[in-house]
């Protein structure tokens, strides 16, 4: 009797991933007009990122498709929010464009190079050897704090366009949150750039070894 083929698209974490995409699209639609619906859907989609990871581990349903779906949803979500912020705050449009230009390519080249590295046995630059980066990679609480702080910064900037929110001693809590989360967003961007540099170096190692193998084959 032949083994029944699994349908990874129906794995629990991937179903959660599809729900994240739907919520993100709804938030994009309402971003210019209804900040309550937009924020609720956007934040829920972001929080489900942690839920699908737990589901993948609990049900032993971790897949490459799910990992890439997660990355694409995260990157597209932040990119679209930054595009809206660039429209809301035209004076700072350059910085939002820079943020998108750092976030998307750095994550793409890192993910793509990681997949290529899995097909080879060459020695690559390993960022986890650095104590700070090792903490970033191995401690899920640190990773969640960095990702949540980054998303919080942009989400609060979005909310500030519509409302000052609750006040404490005549100071907007939203503005306080922006001030506190800004360093996290900056640190996250710097880590993304570091990812890009290391990925580029590892990609060059792959190129060098492939060219060397090709020369040996033709000689």
List keywords for this structure.
single chain; 219 residues; mainly alpha; 2 domains; two-stranded antiparallel ribbon; 2 strands; globular
3D structure, described in words:
22% of the residues are buried. α3 runs parallel beside α6 (140-162) and α4 (93-117) packs across α7. This protein has helices at residues 12-30, 35-58, 64-88, 93-117, 131-138, 140-162, 173-218; strands at residues 167-168, 171-172. The chain contains seven helices and two strands, in the order ααααααββα. It is 78% helix and 2% strand. The protein has two domains: 1-88, no CATH class; 92-219, no CATH class. The model has no long low-confidence stretch (mean pLDDT 87). β1 (167-168) and β2 (171-172) form a beta hairpin. The chain has a two-stranded antiparallel ribbon with strand order 1-2. The longest helix has 46 residues, at 173-218. With 219 residues, it is an all-alpha fold. The chain is globular, with a radius of gyration of 20 Å.
């Amino acid at each position: 009797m032949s083994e029944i083929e699994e349908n990874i698209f129906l794995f629990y974490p991937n179903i959660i991933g599809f729900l994240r995409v739907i919520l993100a699209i709804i938030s994009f639609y309402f971003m210019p007009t209804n900040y309550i619906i937009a924020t609720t859907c956007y934040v829920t989609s972001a929080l489900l990122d942690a839920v699908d990871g737990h589901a993948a581990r609990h049900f032993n349903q971790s897949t490459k498709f799910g990992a890439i779906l997660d990355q694409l949803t995260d990157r597209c979500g932040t990119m679209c929010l930054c595009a809206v912020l660039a429209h809301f705050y035209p004076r700072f449009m350059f910085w939002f464009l820079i943020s998108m230009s750092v976030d998307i390519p750095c994550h793409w080249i890192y993910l793509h190079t990681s997949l290529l590295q899995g097909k080879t046995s060459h020695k690559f630059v390993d960022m986890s050897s650095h104590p700070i980066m090792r903490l970033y990679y191995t401690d899920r609480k640190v990773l969640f704090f960095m990702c949540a702080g980054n998303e919080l910064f942009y989400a609060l900037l979005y909310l500030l366009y519509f409302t000052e929110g609750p006040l404490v001693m005549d100071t907007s809590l939203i503005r306080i949150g922006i001030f506190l989360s800004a360093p996290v967003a900056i640190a996250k961007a710097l880590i993304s750039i570091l990812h890009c540099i290391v990925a580029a170096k590892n990609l060059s190692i792959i190129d060098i070894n492939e060219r060397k193998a090709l020369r040996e084959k033709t000689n």
